[in-house]
Amino acid sequence: MESDAVTSTVVIMAGGTGGHIFPALATALEFKRRGFSVQWIGTEKSMEAEIVPRYEFPISFIPVAGIRRNGIGRLLKAPYQILLSVYRALKILRREKPILVLGMGGFATGPGGVAARILGIPLVIHEQNAIPGLTNRILSYVADCVLEAFPDTFKTSAKRLQRRLHVTGNPIRTSIKESKFYNPQQPLRLLVLGGSRGAVAINQIMPEVIQGCKGAVTVWHQAGKNNIIECQQRYDVMGVSGRVDAFIDDMAEAYKWADVVLCRAGALTVSELAMAGRPAILIPYPYAVDDHQTRNGNYLVKKNAALLVQQSVLSSSCLVSLLLDLSRDPQRLKYMAASAKSLSKPMATADVVDYCLGVCHG
C-alpha cells in the first residue's frame, strides 16, 4: 500500500530495550522508504536516545519512567510524571501534526498514546511479546488498530477487539535471511547470545559446557561489553578456545554461521530465529515481567523448532547432554530449522505499515 503523501509525518513511540527499538526502527525505515517523514518520541535516559539518531530520525523526549517493580518512591511520583509526560507529548504532536501515531512499547508509549487520543489522531499499537505489556493492555481499549507479533497475545480481549486485532509478526532487520543450505557441521557450531548487554548466568556456565563437549562443539559467544573480559578469562581457565565478542554487529552473518543458537527468549530474538531458520536452545530471562520470555519461547517450542531450559534448573551437565545429542542428530537439526522457518513472518514490516495506512485511509 504505497502513499503519495510524501510530506506526511508519522510519529513512532518506542524505547527502553532493543526489543522495542529495533522493530520500531525497521518500521520507521519502511515508512521512510514509502516517502513519509518519521518523528520519534522516547525518553532521554534510555537506549533510544543513543540509537535512534544514528538512523537520522529526529527524536523528542518526554520525562516518563517505569512504574512496575520500581519502589514506592517512583509510584508516588507517577501521577505527576504521567501528567507532565502527556502534556509534553501533546506539545510534540501539535507541533508535528502527524497523520498517525504508532506505539511499539516502552515508557513513552503510554503518555503518547493518551495524547494522540485527546487530539483525535489515529492510534495504532504493536505488541512484540507473547504477553502484552501493561501500557498496551490499557491502550488496546482506545487504539484504532491493535497489532500482535504472536497469535493469541490479546486472546482474552479478542472478542472486544474483533476487527481491530491483527497478527503481523515482529518487524526485523531485512539482512537476516536463511542461508541457502542448512547443513549442520562437525564440530557443531554454537552461537551464544545473551543480548547486547550479556547474560551473566549464560556467560558463567558456557566455558564449562564447551569443555564438557570435548571438541564436539565450537562456539561464537556474544558476552556483552560489561562481561567480555571475565567471560574470556573463564574460557582461558577451562582451556577451551572460541570466539568471544562484546557485541556482534553483523547478526545476519552470525546466524548464517550457526548450526544452533543458545540465547534468551526475547521477542525480537525469537522472531529472528524464525526468520533465519535456526534451531535454538532457549533460556528465558527469569525476571522478565509476567514471565513473558517463556511464552515467547513456547512459540518455537510448540512446533519443535527449539528446546527450552529454565534458568532455575540450568546446569553445565544439562547443556552438555543437549548439545551432544543435537551434534549426533543432523536430521533432527534440519527438522528444527525447517520448523523455525515455517513460523517466520517475512512480511511483518510491510504488514505493520499497511495496517497503519489502512487506519489513516479509513
Q: Structural class, judged by helices and strands?
A: alpha/beta
Measured by DSSP, the beta-strand proportion falls in 15-25%
* Whole-number tally of structural domains: 2
| Global shape | elongated
Largest sheet: 7 strands, parallel
Poorly predicted runs are none
- The first-level CATH class name of the largest domain: Alpha Beta
- Spatial strand arrangement across the major sheet: 3-2-1-4-5-6-7
What string, H for helix and E for strand, traces the elements in order?
EHEHEHEHEHEHEEHEHEHEHEHEHHH
Q: Enter the CATH topology name of the largest domain.
A: Rossmann fold
Instruction: Give a count of the beta strands, DSSP E runs of length 2 or more.
Output: 13
- The end-to-end distance, rounded to whole angstroms, is 13 Å
Mean pLDDT across every amino acid position? 92
What would you say this structure looks like, in words?
The chain is of the alpha/beta class and 362 residues long.
Record keyword descriptors for this entry.
six-stranded parallel β-sheet; cell membrane; alpha/beta; undecaprenyldiphospho-muramoylpentapeptide beta-N-acetylglucosaminyltransferase activity; Rossmann fold; seven-stranded parallel β-sheet; cell division; 2 domains; GlcNAc_MurG; membrane; 13 strands
How is this structure best summarized?
Pfam families: Glyco_tran_28_C, Glyco_transf_28. The chain has 362 residues and is an alpha/beta fold. Helix content is 43%, strand content 15%.
Strand-helix topology:
Elements: E1 9-13, H1 18-33, E2 37-42, H2 48-51, E3 59-61, H3 71-96, E4 100-103, H4 109-119, E5 123-127, H5 134-139, E6 145-148, H6 158-161, E7 165-167, E8 188-193, H7 200-212, E9 217-222, H8 228-238, E10 243-245, H9 251-257, E11 260-263, H10 267-276, E12 280-282, H11 292-301, E13 306-308, H12 316-327, H13 330-342, H14 348-360
Parallel strand pairs: 1-2, 1-4, 2-3, 4-5, 5-6, 6-7, 8-9, 8-11, 9-10, 11-12, 12-13
Helix pairs in contact: 1-14, 3-4, 7-8, 7-12, 10-13
Pfam family, one: Glyco_tran_28_C
Domain Glycosyltransferase family 28 N-terminal: 10-147
Protein name: UDP-N-acetylglucosamine--N-acetylmuramyl-(Pentapeptide) pyrophosphoryl-undecaprenol N-acetylglucosamine transferase
